[in-house]
């Protein structure tokens, strides 16, 4: 059997050691590079969709067909109505009075009433012109828009010319007309409810 010369055996051993050193070096460099490289973290984005609560949830709807106005009112009230007016009661006795008012041409025997009117705007007229021409309460203050339209009110809520009743007028300036939503109530605390009712108004052309 042939044998490798001693110098070849030594050379083979050196090669093995050299390969091991290279492998170790490569492994070390790779580990260092891996540790030093910034990790990319994929953040999990959670979209929280918060449903906006409907401020009129559970409310009922009244529509004034001649004036093309629709409003909402609390379901806790007993309602009587005609084409232009809505009367709200808290007892059956009040509702019976309101039923009579709804059938009459004029009536003041109620505790909470809402009427609607619509005033045509001539081509050259502004909101102010229309209000002055059609209202005995022309002084108004801008309030939050209603259904996207500029709105105004006369909200002194003081005892007006109708005896002991409180009044408020809300005007909505539409492109071709001005809508008036008028509230009349026997308690000043009803003003906030009326304002919320007026703010629910929607309109058809």
Poorly predicted runs are: none
Termini Cα gap: 113 Å
Arrangement of strands in the largest sheet: 3-4-5-9-8-7-6
Query: What is the CATH T-level topology?
Result: Protein Transport Mog1p, Chain A
* Count of discrete domains: 1
Sheet of most strands: 7 strands, antiparallel
Mean pLDDT: 81
Specify the CATH class.
Answer: Alpha Beta
Along the chain, the helix and strand elements come as: HEEEEHEHEEEEHE
Tell me the β content. Answer: 25-35%
What fraction, in percent, of the residue positions are helical?
25-40%
> C-alpha Rg, in Å?
40 Å
CATH homology group = Mog1/PsbP, alpha/beta/alpha sandwich
CATH architecture verdict = 3-Layer(aba) Sandwich
Structural class: alpha+beta
Total E-strand runs: 10
User: What is the number of helices?
Assistant: 4
**What overall geometry do the principal axes of the alpha carbons give?**
elongated
Give an overview in words:
With 205 residues, the chain is α+β, with helices and mostly antiparallel strands. It has one domain (60-203): Mog1/PsbP, alpha/beta/alpha sandwich (Protein Transport Mog1p, Chain A), CATH 3.40.1000.10. It has helices spanning 6-36, 92-103, 127-134, 191-199; strands at 60-64, 69-73, 78-81, 85-89, 112-120, 141-146, 149-154, 166-173, 177-185, 202-203. The strands form two sheets. It has a seven-stranded antiparallel β-sheet, with helices on both faces. The chain is elongated.
């Amino acid at each position: 059997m042939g044998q490798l010369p001693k110098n070849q055996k030594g050379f083979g051993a050196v090669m093995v050691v050299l390969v091991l050193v290279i492998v170790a070096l490569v492994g070390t460099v790779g580990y260092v590079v891996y540790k030093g490289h910034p990790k990319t973290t994929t953040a999990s984005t959670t979209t929280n969709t918060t449903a906006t609560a409907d401020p009129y949830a559970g409310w009922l709807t009244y529509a004034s067909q001649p004036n093309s106005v629709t409003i909402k009112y609390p379901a806790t009230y007993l309602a009587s109505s005609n084409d232009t007016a809505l009367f709200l009661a808290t007892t059956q006795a009040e509702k019976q009075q309101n039923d009579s008012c709804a059938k009459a041409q004029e009536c003041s025997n109620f505790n909470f009433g809402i009427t609607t009117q619509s005033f045509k705007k001539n081509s050259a007229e502004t909101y102010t012109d229309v209000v002055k021409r059609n209202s005995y309460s022309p002084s108004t203050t801008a309030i939050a828009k209603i259904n996207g339209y500029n709105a105004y009110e006369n909200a002194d809520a003081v005892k007006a010319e109708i005896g002991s009743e409180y009044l408020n007028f809300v005007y909505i300036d539409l492109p071709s007309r001005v809508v008036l939503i008028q509230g009349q109530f026997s308690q000043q605390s009803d003003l906030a409810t009326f304002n919320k009712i007026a703010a629910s108004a929607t309109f058809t052309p």
